[in-house]
Structure formats: C-alpha cells, structure tokens
Design goal:
The chain is mostly beta strands. The chain has two domains: 349 residues, no CATH class; 55 residues, no CATH class. Helices cover 14% and strands 42% of the residues. The chain has five helices and 18 strands. Helix 3 packs across helix 4. The radius of gyration is 20 Å and the shape is globular. It starts with a strand and ends with a helix. InterPro entries: Fe-S_cluster_assembly_SufBD, SUF_FeS_clus_asmbl_SufBD_core, SUF_FeS_clus_asmbl_SufBD_sf, SUF_FeS_clus_asmbl_SufD. This is Fe-S cluster assembly protein SufD. Belongs to the iron-sulfur cluster assembly SufBD family. Pfam families: SUFBD_core.
Length: 406
C-alpha cells in the first residue's frame, strides 16, 4: 500500500509560505491517485447565503474539479426545481424538542455559511427548516433517529441540531430511497456538551445527494461525526467544523464502499481558529468496478491565533478490482508554530499479499481470507458508531457488497 505522510515533528515549523508544493506521491496506472499538500484547498468564492454570489461551476474550479457536474441533475446551475417528495420521520426521547420553523428563525445559520453553489442553492430553496433541540444538561438514553426516504424528484432541506450546554446526545440520520437532494445540516454543540452524529447514505443507485454539514463546537465540548456512504449515483458531502471556545474536540470518521459507476466524494474542512482545541480525522474506503470513483479531500487550517492545537488526519483506500479510481488529497496549513502536533497521511493500495498468505496458510480459503481482510479494514470505524443494531446492519451491507467481488 502506497503511503504519503508527514509526521507531527515535520510540521512543527514556521507558517507555510507561498503556493502548495506537492509533497506526496502518486500510485501507478489508473487505479488510484494520491496527492498531498501543506496548504489548504482554496475555494473559488467566499462563503455566502446567497446563491447569486457563486458563479455556475464549469469543473475547472478547485472545489469542483473531481465532481461529474453533468450527473448532478441541475443542482449546480439552478435548473433543478423542487418537484419531489422526501418522507421524513424523527424518533426522539421525550426531552427532545422537534420544531418546524420559518427561514427567519434565529437558530438558522449560526454555525456557518454555504461554501459552494449547491449548498447556497439549498439554503435559498428550502421553505421550512427542522430544528431538533436537546436541553442543557440532558443526557439522552436513546438516540435521536432521523429517517429520510426519497420518493423521487428534487428536494431541498435544512436541519438544525441544537445541543445545550453539558448535554449528551447521539443522532442518526439515515438516507434511503431515490432522490435528487441538496441540504444543509447544522450542529450547534453547547459548552461542555457531547454530540455524536452518524450519517448513513444508503440511497438507491440512481440518487444524487449533496450536503454541507456545519458544526460549531463550544468550549470544552466534544463532537464526533461518523459518515457511512454506500448508495447513490453521486454523493458529495462537505463536513466542516469551527470552534466557539478553547478545549473543544472534534472527531471525524468515515466509511465508504464505492461500486462500479458510483461517484462518492467527501470534502472535509477543520478550521482551527481557537486556542487549545483538538481534531482527529480517519476515513477509509473500498472500491470495486471499472468506473468506481472515490474522492477524499481533507483540509485542516491552523490559524495564527490557534496556539496549542493538536490535529491529525488519515485517509486509507483499498482497491478491490482494476480500473477503480481514488483521488485522495490531505491538506494542512499552519500559521503558528506554537502547536502540540499536526500531521496527515494518505494510503491507497490493493489487498496485502502477506495478510492473505497468513490467513490461507491456516486453512482459510482465499475468498474467506479476502472477506476477513476487508472486515478488519473497516472494523475500527464501525465500532465508532456505538449502536449495535446499526453496526450489524452496516456489516451486513459490507458483506453484500463483497459478494460481487470476492
């Protein structure tokens, strides 16, 4: 498995100057591409709630160069009019308040603005938003479960999860069915609170899903995001985090299984703009099929005022068949040398022959050995979910995906 990485010691330097010189390496052939930079990816336009502030992308822009625009069904150019239906169900403990609110509700937009045209289109197009509130100091014994089932057509949405100070909650957002969907999701984590969010993309093969996730993490608060992507023709997710006070922690875990013809793109941005905060990113993907394409962009920016930052990001990809393509780009920009640690790594490769040989030497068939390797590859991330019923469902889904390969 080819790997490019920088250690924390390599990156405890003065602020990075100039352009983004490549310091990574590329794997051979059309199987996968890995790149690495010490400067965070630049967006072509500043964040804005107004879709008019974003030009229609043409695919040459940094944030769009990997995305098949022609398959977005008009989400990017304003031609996708809301015409479909999405069945939404929310199951929550008694302490939780669920509201449908108008666009002018003060809780909307507190965690950040849209950063690309699709997110801005979603913000400009939704009629009503959903606000899910967890009161301060509440410790939920059961998760909040949000089920979104597409029934065809185009839909836009906006959801806010507001977790009060010192509260603890788990939220599961489950996407199924067929839809062309663009949405913004906000997570406001109060001081000392703990929030875990599991977002599952288990769409039908024809679905298109673009979503920006904004998290604002309060003082001494903890936020954990677990993203699981299996279905959809095109899925493009943009998780982001900012810190509202020192001592905040953010963890991002991701698991994706990309089949023939699917495009799955995960673009993360961790904005360390507050002192003494921490972040950790681990995303893993498996790919199979001639036209499978996965994109992972991991941007971490440590601003000059963010002294005491501790951060690391890792992306690993397992290519199961010839022809699958990975674009993996970890980026790190440091504007202060007064940090605890910072590093990033990217690795892409095929099955480890030594692992297969070890298992087969103990009487395990090659087919079963390959299954065990893939399950072991994803095991760490599945365990982060912490919900047995959902973990079992996802492991069964992985087994189903592997039936087509091993």
């Amino acid at each position: 498995m080819a790997e490019a990485q920088n250690s924390p010691e390599d990156l405890r330097q003065a602020p990075v100057q100039g352009g983004p010189p490549p310091v990574g390496s590329n794997t051979t052939g059309s199987i996968a591409v890995a790149a690495e930079s010490t400067v965070a990816t630049r967006m072509s336009a500043p964040p804005s709630f107004d879709v008019a502030d974003f030009p229609v992308p043409h695919g040459r822009e940094e944030e769009w160069r990997f995305t098949p625009l022609e398959r977005l069904k008009g989400l990017h150019d304003g031609s996708a009019e809301a015409s479909g239906s999405l069945k939404a169900e929310i199951s929550a403990p008694d302490a939780v308040t669920v509201e449908t609110v108008a666009r002018d509700d003060a809780r909307i937009g507190r965690t950040g603005k849209p950063v690309d045209r699709v997110a801005a289109q979603a913000f400009s197009s939704f009629e009503k938003a959903t606000v899910v509130s967890v009161p301060k100091e509440a410790v939920l014994e059961e998760p909040v479960r949000v089920t979104l089932h597409g029934e065809g057509g185009v839909s836009y949405g906006h959801t806010v999860f507001d977790v009060g100070a010192f509260a603890e909650a788990v939220v599961v957002i489950d996407h199924t069915g067929d839809a062309v969907r663009a949405a913004n999701v906000e997570f406001h984590v109060g001081d000392g609170a703990k929030l875990t969010v599991v977002s599952v993309q288990d769409w039908d093969d024809t679905a298109v899903h673009c979503s920006q996730h904004n998290a604002l993490v309060g003082r001494d608060a903890s936020f954990k995001s677990v993203v699981v992507t299996f279905g959809g023709d095109v899925v493009r997710l943009h998780p982001r985090v900012n810190y509202a006070g020192p001592g905040g922690e953010a963890e991002f875990y991701g698991l994706y299984f990309t089949d023939n013809g699917q495009h799955q793109e995960h673009r993360l941005f961790v904005d360390h703009d507050t002192p003494n905060c921490r972040s950790n990113v681990v995303y893993k993907g498996a790919l199979q099929g001639e036209a499978a394409h996965a994109v992972w962009i991991g941007d971490v920016l440590i601003r000059k005022e963010a002294e005491g930052t501790d951060t690391y990001e890792l992306n690993r990809n397992l290519v199961l068949t010839d022809g699958a393509r990975v674009d993996s780009v970890p980026n790190l920009e440091i504007e202060t040398g007064e940090i605890v640690g910072a590093g990033h790594a990217s690795a892409t490769g095929r099955f480890d022959d030594e692992q297969l040989f070890y298992l087969m030497a103990r009487g395990i068939t090659e087919k079963d050995a390959r299954r065990l390797v893939v399950r072991g590859f994803f095991a760490e991330l599945v365990q982060q979910i912490g919900l047995p019923d959902l973990q079992e469902r996802l492991l069964a889904k992985i087994e189903t995906e592997l039936e087509a390969t091993v």
